[in-house]
Amino acid sequence: MTPIILDGRSLAQELRQEAELELVELQHRLGRPAGMAVIQVGNDPASSRYVRTISKLCHTLGASFRLEQLAADAAQDDLLRVIATLNSADEVDGIMIQMPLPPHLDTTSAILALDYRKDVDGVHPINAGLLAQGRPGIVPNTPAGGIELLRRNGIELRGKRAAVVGRSPVVGRPMAQLLTTADATVTICHSRTTNLGDVLRTCEIVCVAAGRPRLITAEMISPGTVVVDFGTNVDAEGQLIGDVDFAGVAERARAITPVPGGTGPVTNSMLIKNIITAARTRLVQ
């Protein structure tokens, strides 16, 4: 069986082209570019690279970008003060706190301090609650990108049996909720799930966000399964690999995301879509 490769790079380009047009329309309505701010505590090299990527993407597509850089030893009050300033800034439509924060800072209180309407990561409990209720809100970028990959490749979700392996609040749980909203019947699996393969073989769609390299092997899925791999792991040779054994699973799958080049490229494009959603929400309030 030759599977459909769910190509995230081409979809990301398509989404960026759409976002660029939407940002032009928003600028006319707002009288300014839609704006995003990132709060970064410390200067972790990987975090800094990601921040530079988001800055470049915003500037390329026509959104403004603002970086609030705090020292690695910044106090909780310093962080909360910056959040409050950005919450009240009219020119800022979206705020992202670069994670993880240093261990001495309280991540939960920082997230709670965000104006949920500007929470472009979709991590605030109000946005999580809206998603759980199937109501409009800001959805975490990675699972939103996974759903978009399925939708734009014509993968039917209604009435399908789906499994999500992983239950993190930023990927696994929201992906399960998005699939449920799309009328799939969803099972959430995790590290305590017994006989994982027995569960997955009953499903037509398998989404994996476990953080364990090549966890899912060919014998664990049924022929014709659609597989979405959110994993990002680095092997002993320094190569990026997913949570799915791509070579083996691809021989049985109907469709599959590669790693790299699958869900990853779409995530950043969905972040821009969330900035647009946040700006539009503020226009009507």
Automatic annotation (TrEMBL):
A GO molecular function held by the record: methenyltetrahydrofolate cyclohydrolase activity
Which CDD domains does this UniProt record tie to the protein?
Answer: NAD_bind_m-THF_DH_Cyclohyd (cd01080)
Q: What function does this protein fulfil?
A: Catalyzes the oxidation of 5,10-methylenetetrahydrofolate to 5,10-methenyltetrahydrofolate and then the hydrolysis of 5,10-methenyltetrahydrofolate to 10-formyltetrahydrofolate.
Entry-linked SUPFAM superfamilies: Aminoacid dehydrogenase-like, N-terminal domain, NAD(P)-binding Rossmann-fold domains
Q: Which UniProt keywords apply?
A: Amino-acid biosynthesis, Histidine biosynthesis, Hydrolase, Methionine biosynthesis, Multifunctional enzyme, NADP, One-carbon metabolism, Oxidoreductase, Purine biosynthesis
Q: One biological-process term from Gene Ontology?
A: L-histidine biosynthetic process
Q: What is this protein called?
A: Bifunctional protein FolD
- Whether NADP counts among this entry's keywords is yes
**Gene of origin?**
folD
Transmembrane stretches, start-end: none
Q: Which reaction does it catalyse?
A: (6R)-5,10-methenyltetrahydrofolate + H2O = (6R)-10-formyltetrahydrofolate + H(+); (6R)-5,10-methylene-5,6,7,8-tetrahydrofolate + NADP(+) = (6R)-5,10-methenyltetrahydrofolate + NADPH
A Pfam family that the UniProt record links to this protein: THF_DHG_CYH_C
Assigned protein family: Belongs to the tetrahydrofolate dehydrogenase/cyclohydrolase family.
Q: In which pathway does it act?
A: One-carbon metabolism; tetrahydrofolate interconversion
Known PANTHER family for this protein? C-1-TETRAHYDROFOLATE SYNTHASE, CYTOPLASMIC, C-1-TETRAHYDROFOLATE SYNTHASE, CYTOPLASMIC-RELATED
What EC number is given for this enzyme?
A: 1.5.1.5, 3.5.4.9
Entry's Gene Ontology cellular component terms: cytosol
The UniProt record lists the Tetrahydrofolate dehydrogenase/cyclohydrolase NAD(P)-binding domain at 140-281
Q: How does it assemble?
A: Homodimer.
